[in-house]
Amino acid sequence: MALLGTAAMAMFFDVAPEAVAEHDDWHTHEHIPERLSIPGFLRGSRWTAVSAEQRYFVLYEVAGVAVLSSAAYLERLNHPTPWTAKMMPSYRGMRRGFCRVERSFGLGLGGDALSVRLSPQPGKETSLRAWLTEQVMPGLASKPGLAGAHLLQAAAAPSMTREQQIRRKDAGVVWLLLVTGYSSDALKSLRDGELRSEPLRRHGAAQDPAAGIYRLGYFLTAQPPLKP
User: Fold this and answer.
1) 3-class SS at 163?
2) HEC string of 107-153?
3) Which tens digit of pLDDT belongs to each residue from 124-142?
4) What is the DSSP string of 44-85?
5) Cα 40 to Cα 43: distance, rounded to the nearest angstrom
6) What angle do CA 143, 58, 76 make, to 5 degrees?
7) Which sequence spans correspond to the domains of the chain?
8) Which DSSP symbol is given to 161?
9) CB under 8 Å, gap of 24 or more: what pairs does 79-82 form?
10) What residues contact residue 197 under an 8 Å CB cut-off, 6+ apart?
11) What is the longest distance spanned by two Cα atoms in the chain?
């Protein structure tokens, strides 16, 4: 399975234009390493929009959903570093979801990603999930230009913490379909074809999905402790 662990935190957001350079510096050199020091955090990645409504997509892969409400994680959220406290007010339109990995296909991650945020119609959750995981996703990982496909579903509600208070209340992520690959053109064709709004709505999506193409900017994998 290309994703590490059985759960993930997915975030989509913008940053005030004048703060972008410092944000990327802070996020790379302090914030992701800090998060990856928390037990259960396995990998963090930051992606930047090629064609999307919001500039950033960030994914933290974790061992399980319980990690995202653990005392160690909440301690960091409620005691932000001075640099984190400085950066939080520059965030705009944060969407954050604590998700379980419902299904995952493929062996690795590509450097480009198609993210599709969607919500099922009431009563259509089972049929939409079955269509995606049994008919659409299994063959994607082997297509030219693509590497893997993953369905994430909201599994817990993030609690209000000091970091969120600084940047203001977050919106949520209900379902996230994530396809990665090595060709942004292949991902754009998928977005405009098999995963365009019309077939998703026909199979049970509640509204026009929010689809975006992103490129990997930075990732970090947790390092196992050194053996004595």
Assistant:
1) helix
2) CCCCCEEEEEEECECCCCHHHHHHHHHHHHCCCHHHCCCEEEEEEEE
3) 999 999 999 999 999 999 9
4) EEEEEEEE-SSSEEEEEEES-GGGGG-HHHHHHHHS--HHHH
5) 9
6) 145
7) 7-221
8) -
9) 79/162, 80/162, 80/163, 80/166, 81/30, 81/34
10) 205, 208, 209
11) 57
- DSSP codes joined into one string, 2-38: -S-SSEEEEEEEEE-GGGHHHHHHHIIIIIHHHHHTS
d(Cα 174, Cα 161) in Å, to the nearest integer?
20
Percent of the chain whose pLDDT exceeds 90: 87
> What's the one-letter identity of residue 84?
T
CA–CA gap between residue 39 and residue 181 (Å, rounded): 29
Do residues 60 and 35 touch, judged by C-beta distance below 8 A?
yes
In this predicted structure, what is the pLDDT of residue 208? 81
CA distance 189 to 182: 13
Cβ atoms 220, 43 nearer than 8 A: yes
Count of residues for the chain?
Answer: 228
Tell me the pLDDT tens digit for each residue of 132-186. Answer: 999 999 999 999 999 999 999 999 877 667 777 666 778 889 999 999 999 999 9
* DSSP 8-state class, residue 174: -
CATH code linked to domain 7-221: 3.30.70.100
